[in-house]
Write a sequence for this structure.
């Protein structure tokens, strides 16, 4: 069964994404669990740093696509799924009072990559793999999830990642600014980074994080009409074709309808 | 004679910059041709991707400076040349409905680099060369052309490129974020990238592109007075000195007047 | 005794940070000297370029922390120190009419790195060292100093630099976008870059610099309340603990108070 696990070791907490047999793909319960977990951790002022990682050698494979038939099958459900369930979980991570470190091994794609992007630091294994390969699934990235990617890699790399839909290695991810460093032992390096952060003054770390977020310029929020257009794909034939082809493991045929 | 050529191969169009004997330098007719070509391609919803390239081993050498005596000899003409002719052509490329790929060999400088920057992806040959060497020509980059550069490389690299006015190689261009990748066979790599894009859902690609442009933050537009100041160089002695020295192949002497 | 020295060689001025025996750490008099020096240089239209460097093999080690007991011991003094003394010096450099080049050897940390970030180009020796290791000193980066860092390295690298507080080498600094290039002979490379800039039209260089600053998007200014919060650390126990531990060369113990 899927779960968001949370362990504490002194002033350092570790949050683990777990969905056995599905590369830790995120279902709705996990997105809600992430939000609740980070809301609680953020309120615990005894903490100094939070490490986010995935169970059993992978970070996370993205959203649990098998769920789309029930939670993202029409415009209203799909908008709720993205702007409430996912965006609020990512915001809970991004706005967490404490510094956060994503410790990444294996697959880190789609929603998994979004969670990593919402953390403050990203440390990855040489064999880890990155990307947002949703163009073959027939849908664009939701705006609330796109902003986090854009803040890290800029316009040119965001276009490449989304238009080509390739999955790429850690070296390429580092070149794009997606990860801070590649480590031989990711868990060790994340612990050392967390220990270093924990040795500094916590009020200073929290204010640095708060000011960096405050002074990083984001675009004007989308209007209601722009939001509606961004989710219009939910009623397209190509979206249904992409998801059903993925689940049936057949190549999709897109018509632009 | 100069021309903008447009060929279609299934769902992929190729736009070729051509000005034989002038390294495909862009004259006014070519800027207008680019705008018209991209307006038409953008309206063709059967398309999936557009490749932009240059004739005969070069991308483009910049604006056709021999024309400056007639099209950019005073403030009114110069502002029209930049804010209408050039900026509208770049906007037609940047706002094109379909994903665009610049396939770059040889010289890609000045106006040629601006065209490449307006595309979504940039793939270049190892021997290609980049820069905006206009400081020796006595004029600054027009604001409508500067924003596209800034969006890709940021403040530090934009200052370096314009203040030093160096021409640099593909490896340095990649380091600055000007190009996405260096390819042994640029035409092949561009075709493969276009094929990959064409296999994805077109509505998703178009919305990804639209949202990335929408959420990439640009500065407030210049006021009329700021625009006027940005083009005041057109009435300076140093501008005339820079252009005439270039055409006569003698070193310019600048006085700051 | 500390000083800001200014020498001219034709159209190129060199500003030297000097505080012997303190790795050119910046005291209040030096920050004020920097502001006055750059205000004067900016008004001298015969100049073409300004090189900023440090005395005796180091750029600068940051602020002179021994002074904190007198100039930054309470909220009012600390806000004055940062928003008037330091921020106005950095603005005088950043808004200087002429192109500026930081020629960096040895230590370039804290306030020294802020000065380098305010310059237009940064050229560094292979052995130079960078960072803002203030988390162990118990305080966050002041907002007026943070914006300059963010403009160059973006959100992800700014978080890493401030949360970890590591001091890192020139290669890592180049990877983060902090410096433009590493040179075997920094003084030579800076002179060649200045000579190249000086050969271009000065009005063009000044307008390029002005437009790049104008079109680089910065966040909305902080409100009075946000500013107050950003400096609240000045009344914390951890700030006093960090500074006194540093001066006594003992490890600090932070409590979050």
């Amino acid at each position: 069964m899927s779960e968001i696990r949370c362990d504490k070791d002194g002033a350092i907490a570790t949050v683990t994404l777990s969905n056995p047999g599905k590369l830790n793909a995120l279902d709705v319960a996990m997105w809600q669990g992430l939000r609740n977990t980070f809301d609680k951790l953020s309120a615990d002022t005894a903490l100094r740093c939070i490490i986010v990682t995935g169970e059993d050698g992978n970070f996370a494979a993205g959203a649990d696509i098998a769920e789309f038939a029930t939670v993202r099958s029409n415009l209203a459900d799909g908008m709720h799924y993205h702007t409430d369930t996912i965006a609020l979980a990512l915001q809970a991570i991004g706005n967490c009072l404490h510094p956060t470190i994503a410790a990444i091994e294996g697959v880190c794609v789609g929603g998994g990559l979004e969670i990593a992007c919402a953390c403050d630091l990203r440390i990855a294994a040489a064999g880890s793999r990155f990307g947002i390969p949703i163009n073959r699934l027939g849908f664009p990235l939701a705006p609330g999830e796109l902003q986090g990617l854009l803040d890290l890699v800029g316009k040119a790399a965001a276009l490449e990642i989304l238009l080509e839909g390739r999955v790429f290695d850690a070296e390429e991810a580092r070149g794009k600014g997606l990860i801070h460093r590649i480590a031989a032992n990711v868990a060790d390096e994340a612990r050392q980074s967390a220990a270093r952060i924990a040795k500094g003054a916590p009020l200073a770390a929290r204010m640095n994080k708060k000011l960096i977020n405050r002074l990083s310029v984001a675009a004007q929020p989308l209007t209601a009409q722009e939001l509606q257009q961004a989710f219009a794909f939910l009623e397209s034939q190509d979206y249904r074709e992409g998801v059903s082809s993925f689940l049936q493991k057949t190549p999709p045929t897109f018509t632009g309808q």
Q: What stands out?
A: The first strand of chain C starts at residue 3 and ends at 9. The beta strands of chain C are 3-9, 12-18, 49-54, 100-104, 107-109, 121-125, 129-131, 168-169, 181-183. The mean pLDDT of chain C is 96. Chain C touches chain A through 41 residues (CB under 8 Å).
